[in-house]
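Deliverable D2.4 — example input (structure tokens):
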């Protein structure tokens, strides 16, 4: 297998460089390069006489694990050890970062008896004045879309899953569910769900 690849992140892309493995007497014809995040997967192929490639179409501010394997007449070899990189927009471009906000257990959006939280937003770069179009995502699936006039804790409510939002076309980082240290309130209704959910504010 190739060694762990050297990664160079860019805007929605990652450059990948690797050291070729021993071909065991059968010339390498192709390399396969894979980038995978929590809910995205992308791959590309490069000719056997090359040592680098670029994976494009990735989402900024999300970490991707990258691996490489060689192909020859006998089929695919073993995957390389993984390396991790995070694509980012160029300096001066707007970014959005989210973190867990306060508890909101009493909201009608949240199932009774669950711990429910909203998000805090950090805006980086030159943002216009609100209102903004906000889209809520859970594990990559959009769950709500609405107009919002502020920049503080707002809008998307979670009680599990993997949170992500898009505000004014700018996609945030992903944020895995994290409980607070405060105990849950008494559960008046048993709620069973295979995944978390998000709802819009009103």
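Example output (designed residues):
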């Amino acid at each position: 297998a190739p060694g762990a690849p050297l990664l160079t992140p860019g805007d929605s892309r990652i450059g990948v460089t690797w050291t070729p493995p021993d071909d065991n007497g059968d010339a390498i014809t192709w390399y396969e390069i894979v980038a995978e995040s929590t809910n995205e997967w992308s791959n590309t192929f490069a000719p056997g006489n090359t040592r680098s490639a670029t994976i494009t179409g990735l989402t900024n501010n999300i970490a991707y694990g990258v691996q490489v394997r060689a192909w020859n007449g006998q089929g695919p070899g073993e995957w390389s050890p993984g390396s991790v990189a995070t694509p980012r927009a160029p300096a001066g471009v707007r970014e959005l970062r989210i973190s867990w906000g306060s508890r909101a257990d009493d909201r009608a959006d949240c199932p009774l008896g669950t711990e429910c939280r909203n998000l805090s937003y950090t805006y980086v770069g030159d943002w216009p004045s609100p209102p903004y179009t906000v889209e809520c995502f859970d594990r990559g699936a959009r769950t709500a879309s609405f107009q919002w006039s502020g920049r503080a804790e707002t809008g998307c409510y979670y009680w599990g899953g993997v949170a992500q939002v898009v505000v004014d076309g700018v996609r945030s980082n992903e944020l895995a569910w994290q409980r607070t240290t405060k105990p849950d309130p008494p559960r008046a209704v048993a709620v069973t769900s295979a995944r978390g959910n998000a709802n819009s504010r009103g």
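The CA atoms of residues 101 and 176 lie 13 Å apart.
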